[in-house]
Specification:
heterodimer; A: about 280 residues; alpha/beta; Rossmann fold; B: about 325 residues; 2 domains; 7-stranded mixed sheet; 5-stranded mixed sheet
Chain lengths: ~280, ~325
């Protein structure tokens, strides 16, 4: 954790995460680059300024827990733990390669710093709620953060946990939703409408704030203020753009699936570096 | 069995604050003492089994030993993927407890008949599957799964099952308990069918048939040595369970026997036919329709061993 990272340093960290993800996904020819690019600033802020973790002691009992529930954004999650110091960045070259331990969905086995494996949506929040309940009952100071996708909110298991966390006043639990407005086949609004999204959380007893998910200062401010209200879990709805940082990927369903070709990678990296 | 289980769990929770119980809004007249004595170790997750297992995994990953409790298929099938990914993949210290295995909730309906749960739980990596045979085994199994660092499935009957073990047996997960010796046949039972097996064995012994009676309380990992011994030292092997004959105890024993060198005893699986019940009935009624009452089991065994003797003669 580096609590003194400046906004510029966070922006630079986000650029690094985007570049890593583009390289990893292009080389491994896997999917979900759009989902990685949309969550880059969120992860940069969490690892750069918010999370109390110790890369030298991944199992430190008093660490904050981060669950990446949108497990398809695996490349950027591995990049984030590598950049946070949990493992050397050159290990990222093994992403989704035969014989490596970094699957195309977030995997904890053999990857230090990964708290929980995901890939099937709707699993992270119930587990995070269980951790938060245990922490609260123990009077622990550590907190739980769950990063979710918007499409993931279609899963009923999440709403079971949202009901539970509100009832049990788990104010040590924060979710951040990477609301990039596009899910697997189409726009969220055309698939299963989530709006009025914030109102849903409020109705379930949560505190909610909507932020620009690409504004590191706004994200930091929100995360630094959690819980917004004592006795309420926090939902930060981060408005993002799928594929953010590469103009021709932004807002396109295609980049939920396609991997950039080597030629596309060069132009994508150039855009990210220039941003 | 559920009474023996909850008593044992209460005692364990007294001495170990890590022991927690999460229920899925079920357990009326069972869980009250636990929830009153150990409010900080108890959670009612409400009617939300997926969340119940997720919560349990999350709590377990912070160092708790978490029992989840529901009935029939709600404890297992409703939240199967959570059990697979959140519990088994993470080797989370979660003990999934289901009450009412088999057709214990007979006239409540097919939704309440847990007839494939052992097969499905048995297929999951890292999962230990235990179906204790009587209240004594239920108590010992509860203690044993707490000692085990990792996932377990504890399949219990309801209440009022007879005690089969006159004295406390040596209970070890993965090691079958032999209750009687004989060489004519082996009767391997799991769960509440142990009492039926015991009665059938006594009748056969009175008829001068030598019966080895085995309680296979742990269906996974199955005691391969006990199965191999039964198949090579006795002339017939029978499995007896209140579960589909596909994939449960009978399936597990069949898998072991299929890989033994040739020349071993034949196997007959006695259990629920793999179908949905069409006729309403209480547990005993439905069991009799499936040939799982004492008389039918006895008849099945007698017919098979008689045929075999005729062949030999």
């Amino acid at each position: 954790m580096n609590s003194r990272a400046t906004d510029d340093e966070l922006r630079s960290a986000a650029r690094k995460l985007r570049s890593h993800s583009l390289r990893m996904i292009s080389q491994a020819k896997t999917s979900h680059i759009g989902s990685c690019l949309s969550v880059a600033d969120i992860l940069a802020v969490l690892y750069g300024r918010i999370l109390r973790v110790d890369p030298l002691r991944p199992d430190w009992p008093d660490r904050d827990r981060l669950i990446m529930s949108k497990g398809h954004a695996a490349a950027i999650t591995y990049a984030a733990v590598a950049e946070a110091g949990f493992m050397p960045a050159d290990r990222l070259e093994g992403y989704a390669r035969n014989g490596s331990q970094m699957y195309g969905h977030v995997t904890h086995v053999g990857v230090p710093g990964i708290e929980f494996s995901s890939g099937s949506l709707g699993h992270g929040l119930p587990v995070g709620a269980g951790m938060a309940l245990a922490g609260k009952r123990a009077g622990a100071k550590w907190r739980v953060f769950v990063v979710m996708s918007d499409g993931e909110c279609d899963e009923g298991s999440n709403w079971e946990a949202i009901l539970f966390a509100g009832h049990h006043q788990l104010d040590n639990l924060t979710i951040v939703i990477d609301y990039n407005k596009i899910q697997s086949l189409d726009a969220v609004d055309k698939t299963l409408r989530l709006e009025p999204f914030a109102d849903k959380f409020r109705a379930f007893g949560w505190s909610t704030r909507e932020v620009d998910g690409h504004d590191v200062a706004a994200l930091s401010k929100a995360f630094e203020l959690v819980p917004f209200e004592k006795g309420r879990p926090t939902a930060i709805i981060a408005h993002t753009i799928k594929g953010k940082g590469v103009s021709w990927m932004e807002g396109k369903v295609l980049w939920h699936y396609r991997a950039p070709t080597p030629e596309e990678l060069v132009t994508a990296l150039a855009e990210v570096e220039a941003s | 069995m559920r009474t023996a289980f909850i008593q044992a769990l209460n005692e364990l929770a007294d001495s170990d604050p890590r022991v927690c119980l999460i229920v899925g809004d079920l357990g009326f007249s069972v869980i009250e003492e636990f929830s009153q004595k150990h409010p900080d170790q108890f959670v009612n997750a409400g009617v939300s089994e997926q969340n119940m297992i997720g919560l349990a995994a999350g709590m377990a990953l912070t160092g708790k030993i978490v029992f989840t409790y529901s009935i029939g298929n709600f404890a297992t099938l409703r939240c199967l993927e959570q059990i697979r990914n959140d519990v088994c993949y993470h080797r989370a210290n979660v003990k999934v407890v289901s009450v009412g295995g088999g057709v214990a909730y007979g006239n409540l309906g097919v939704t309440h008949h847990a007839s494939e749960d052992v097969a499905i739980m048995r297929a999951l990596p890292n999962m230990v599957v235990v179906a204790p045979g009587d209240p004594v085994e239920a108590r010992l199994a509860t203690r044993a799964v707490v000692e085990l660092d990792g996932p377990a499935y504890l399949r219990l009957g309801k209440a009022g099952e007879p005690v089969v073990h006159e004295k406390e047996p040596n209970f070890e997960l993965g090691r079958a308990i032999t209750l009687g010796e004989g060489t004519d046949l082996t009767l391997i039972a799991s769960g509440g069918m142990l009492a039926t097996a015991d009665k059938v064995a006594r009748t056969l012994v009175a008829q001068d048939v030598g019966v080895r009676l085995v309680s296979m309380h742990t269906v996974k990992p199955i005691d391969k040595e006990a199965v191999a011994r039964a198949a090579t030292e006795t002339a017939h092997v029978f499995t007896l369970e209140e579960h589909s004959v596909e994939g449960g105890l009978g399936g597990a024993v069949a898998e072991v026997m299929a890989e033994l060198p040739p020349g071993h005893a034949p196997l007959k699986r006695i259990g629920l036919r793999p179908e949905f019940n069409k006729t309403v009935g209480d547990q005993n009624y439905l069991k009799s329709l499936h040939g799982l009452d004492e008389e039918s089991v006895l008849k099945t065994i007698q017919q098979i061993i008689a045929r075999s003797y005729r062949r030999v003669g």
